[in-house]
Each structure stands twice: as structure tokens, then as C-alpha cells.
Amino acid sequence: MMTPVKGREIRIKLCALKVRYRQAWLRKATSCELAALLSDIEVLERIQNNANPDNVLQQVEAQHLHSIFN
Fold first, then answer.
1. pTM of the model
2. Burial of 65 (0-12, 13-18, 19+ CB in 10 A)
3. What confidence tier does 3 reach under pLDDT thresholds 50, 70, 90?
4. Cβ(17)–Cβ(68) under 8 Å?
5. Which residues of 8-18 are buried (b: 16+ CB within 10 A; e: fewer)?
6. What is the per-residue pLDDT across 21-55, written as a single tens digit (0 to 9) for each?
7. Structurally, how many domains does the chain consist of?
8. Which domain holds residue 36?
9. In a domain, 69, yes or no
10. 43 and 56 in contact (C-beta within 8 Å)?
């Protein structure tokens, strides 16, 4: 179960990632950078929409995505 604080933290990180993606798009970042940002956005959206965020986090760790919680 996601606590309200954790939910708020995820929403803030998701907004920040979307801003970073838009900035990267505008400065014509590489496709690799854009893909990495999109992957992170998708992971946070899955966590936000999932009743069990720990399960999603375990899947992410298994896929070896770079850290989005730093």
C-alpha cells in the first residue's frame, strides 16, 4: 500500500521528469537520452497506478534501469 507521502513524492518526481523530458526535447537531445527519460516516466506512472508499488519497483530493479529515486 502506498502512503500519501510516498504518493506525493512520486507525483513530484514524475512532474520533474516530464519537465526534464521537455527540456531535452527542445534542446534536441539524443534519442538515447530521450528514451531513458521516457523509460523512467513510464516506470513512475506504473508505480503511481499500481496498488502495490513494491512489486513494480522489484520489476524495475530486475530490468536494470538506472536509478530514478536519487
1. 0.70
2. middle
3. confident
4. yes
5. eebeebbeebe
6. 999 999 999 999 999 999 999 988 888 887 665 66
7. 1
8. 4-63
9. no
10. yes
